[in-house]
């Protein structure tokens, strides 16, 4: 059997007046109209976004976290914090791809070649004035009041004191009305402009909903030059205007909280009997209006005995990391299940491209600083790592700061 190659569709002359952004919008409109899942993302430091459309919702259901090796299928992973029927683990196959950096062509995978006639016709049609974004089937989660959240923090601190957990990351949801005429693609562009170093994403899946975010946290990356990368990102303080990030002073609580996350990553390497890794940090990094402590871990895949499976194995061990769940993992997750009082859905799950653009290159991020777009409101999510010294009011304030990262695009 001949190996089928992807098809390149060129934009027709009818689309000559559409610039690259308008083309991306037109393709997104087509995917939304035909009930197909789509992902749009801008990688940290990249000048342009990409779009990927899956041929059908059914084609996105997946049982396992994606394989991070060059032979694995190309697509966009969208994983919940906890896998469930309400929040399925998804992998959007790269059936239709568009790169704003190469605006002349749309690439269609062999699995989606049946779509070519309809897609060719769509490219020649005039753009729609409005896009109908997909909505989730689940009710909106309850929004915790300050009293409720500070009580959750107290319960978490008590669990730490009782040695049920060493660290737990409590979180909450908040609901804000969407401003009139809110346009997720415009908000995506605004987040991309505001947060150059973030992974900015807009994912819309029928029945699952529309999620927008600007994440500062790499979960697992395999780069073109054969490096595996992950990070321990934790501890938070606001960036004070006029002060340099490198002058930030961290309290003992924060240093310990971040060290736990770093130690967790090292324990994952140990489970895989990997000794050769480079550790850099912790150092202070900027994420929007916030500062965090970050340690980077790098593995040269040329120097490990199992280069093709390291990324895959690490991803499966890492998620959910102690930066979003806690330590020990099982006890922290059980605590959250019992006390958190709402469904995190895709918040603190992970997302990102696998083998898109180039085979063997994957970039998965923790889904933080995100919101869910609903018909008339946005659901915002944020959490804070608790330790024995946590102060409930400060933890509430920290979730407010974190929500500000994406709430900035809701300002009327
Ligand atoms: C849980 C979140 O962030 C995580 C928790 C942090 C903390 O506890 O200080 C900092 C960065 C992230 O790893 C969030 O943004 O919701």
TrEMBL record:
<dbReference type="InterPro" id="IPR015890">
    <property type="entry name" value="Chorismate_C"/>
</dbReference>
<dbReference type="Pfam" id="PF00425">
    <property type="entry name" value="Chorismate_bind"/>
</dbReference>
<feature type="domain" description="Chorismate-utilising enzyme C-terminal">
    <location>
        <begin position="146"/>
        <end position="402"/>
    </location>
</feature>
<dbReference type="InterPro" id="IPR005801">
    <property type="entry name" value="ADC_synthase"/>
</dbReference>
<protein>
    <submittedName>
        <fullName>Isochorismate synthase</fullName>
    </submittedName>
</protein>
């Amino acid at each position: 059997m001949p190996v089928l190659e992807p098809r390149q569709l060129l934009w027709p002359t009818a689309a000559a007046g559409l610039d690259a952004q308008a083309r991306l919008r037109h393709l997104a409109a087509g995917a939304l109209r035909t009930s197909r899942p789509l992902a749009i993302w801008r990688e940290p430091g990249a000048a342009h976004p990409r779009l990927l459309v899956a041929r059908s919702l059914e084609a996105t259901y997946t049982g396992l976290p994606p394989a991070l090796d060059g032979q694995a299928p190309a697509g966009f992973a969208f994983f919940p914090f906890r896998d469930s029927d309400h929040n399925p683990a998804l992998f959007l196959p790269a059936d239709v791809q568009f790169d704003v950096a190469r605006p002349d062509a749309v690439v269609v995978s062999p699995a989606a070649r049946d779509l070519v006639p309809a897609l060719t016709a769509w490219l020649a049609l005039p753009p729609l004035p409005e896009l109908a974004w997909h909505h989730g089937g689940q009710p909106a989660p309850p929004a915790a009041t300050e009293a409720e959240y500070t009580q959750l923090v107290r319960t978490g601190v008590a669990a730490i004191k009782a040695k049920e957990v060493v660290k737990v990351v409590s979180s909450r949801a908040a609901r804000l009305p969407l401003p009139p005429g809110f346009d997720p693609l415009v908000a995506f562009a605004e987040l991309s402009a505001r947060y150059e170093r973030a992974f900015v994403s807009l994912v819309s899946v029928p029945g699952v909903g529309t999620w927008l975010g600007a994440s500062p946290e790499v979960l697992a990356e395999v780069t073109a030059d054969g490096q595996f990368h992950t990070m321990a990102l934790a501890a938070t303080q606001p960036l004070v205007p006029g002060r340099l990030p490198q002058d930030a002073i961290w309290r003992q609580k924060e240093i310990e909280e971040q060290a736990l996350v770093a130690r967790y990553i090292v324990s994952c390497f140990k489970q895989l009997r990997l000794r050769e890794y480079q550790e850099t940090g912790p150092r202070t990094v900027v994420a929007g209006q916030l500062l965090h402590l970050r340690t980077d871990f790098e593995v040269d895949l040329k120097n490990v005995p199992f280069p093709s499976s390291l990324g895959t194995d690490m991803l499966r061990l890492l998620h959910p990391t102690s930066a979003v769940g806690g330590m020990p993992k099982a006890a922290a997750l059980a605590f959250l299940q019992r006390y958190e009082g709402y469904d995190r859905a895709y918040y603190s799950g992970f997302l990102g491209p696998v083998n898109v653009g180039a085979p063997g290159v994957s970039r998965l991020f923790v889904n933080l600083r995100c919101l869910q777009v609903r018909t008339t409101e946005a659901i915002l999510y944020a959490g804070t790592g608790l330790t024995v010294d946590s102060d409930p009011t400060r933890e509430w304030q920290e979730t407010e700061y974190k929500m500000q990262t994406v709430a900035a695009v809701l300002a009327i």
